[in-house]
Amino acid sequence: MKAQILAGPPVAAALLADAAARASRLPALPHLVIVRVGDDPASVSYVRGKARKAGEVGLRNTVHALPEATSQAELLALIDTLNRDDDVNGILVQLPLPAQIAEAAVLHAIDPRKDVDGFHPLNVGELWAGRPALTPCTPAGIMYLLAHHGVQVAGARAVIVGRSHLVGRPLAALLLNADATVTVAHSRTCDLGAVTREADILIAAAGCPGLITPEMVKPGATVIDVGINRVVSIEGKGHLVGDVHPDVADVAGMLTPVPGGVGPMTVAQLLANTVRAAELQHAVRSDVALPETGVVGELA
Ligand code: NAD
After folding, report:
1. 114 has catalytic annotation
2. Set 111, 115, 117, 200: catalytic member
3. Where in the chain do CATH 3.40.50.10860 domains reside?
4. I need a surface site. Which of 169, 219, 229, 282 has the fewest CB within 10 A?
5. Pocket test for ligand 1, best of 161, 223, 244, 256 (most atoms within 8 A of CB)
6. Nearest protein CA to atom 35 of ligand 1, as residue
7. 136-263 is classed in which CATH architecture?
């Protein structure tokens, strides 16, 4: 039997509808500021997509497109201004940055309450302490996708292939907070197949096309394909593939497609995080209780 395909767009739409409803209950519509440095084509396209989606769901958004030669001091000065501006609820600095700017210095400079990417060390620490405030978008989007499809996380064996700060590590924390038994595999893992076959929930986030093959998957497992790899066919046409081989659909119980699986969840979660950031700031200013977010794992 073929796996149930978990398409991202309808789930992303549900997450966005929830975020828009919460935004409408705030005194002012949340405002997301995106900062891009240079003209890397992928960054230009990602930023355009994020800003367009923010507009579609009714969030205010501003894009600062800075020249490639921007110095670290200039970028930090802009972040300082945005941190102090009460009208700005979320700040996202699109990565990667040009070589003259230290990524860590920039991520540390963003006010943790406006850190909609969830990369500030304070937010990373809170996540691992089981008290997540703002969590990285791709992992949080995956948790929403699993919850939406009723995938049992508590007690499940979860294996993540990939240990990046962007995906693997924060996802491990979220799954752990949601009571899964978590294993993180990576490029130095021995006998990867033996590890992945243990998984009730298998997440592939390695950036290797077709890395996960059918014999590496437990029959009936839920397989989440995070990979986005551009490959060129023998006809010379470029297209996107994931880290999971298409034949895994014959073994898995549920499977996310690439494209159209986790990708749309990431952008939706960014906007949900912007609303969450605005809620946090409003709660601090007016001393009100925070609304629940519904994110799995928050009360671990
Ligand atoms: P990364 O390069 O920072 O990390 C890759 C990780 O995979 C590393 O920890 C490495 O140890 C591990 N790895 C690499 N080769 C491996 C192998 N052969 N066996 C086992 N482990 C291996 O990448 P990243 O930023 O975490 O992104 C991973 C993939 O997810 C990329 O394809 C990226 O484009 C994609 N991605 C997708 C989204 C989305 O929204 N869908 C978001 C972020 C990243």
Report:
1. no
2. 117
3. 28-111
4. 219
5. 161
6. 227
7. 3-Layer(aba) Sandwich (3.40)
- Please compute the mean of the pLDDT values over residues 85-101 and round it to a whole number: 97
Question: pLDDT tens digit string along 109-153?
Answer: 999 999 999 999 999 999 999 999 999 999 999 999 999 999 999
Strand partners, 157: 181
- How far is 256 from 60, CA to CA, in rounded Å? 31
Residue 50, pLDDT above cutoff 60? yes
Banded model confidence at residue 285, pLDDT cuts 50, 70, 90: confident
Q: Is 230 in the pocket of ligand 1 (CB under 6 A)?
A: no
Q: Which CATH architecture has domain 28-111?
A: 3-Layer(aba) Sandwich (3.40)
50 classed as catalytic: yes
Task: Determine which one of 53, 94, 218, 243 is catalytic.
Answer: 94
Which ipTM did the prediction report?
Answer: 0.99
Residue 147's nearest CA partner among 264, 268, 14 is: 14
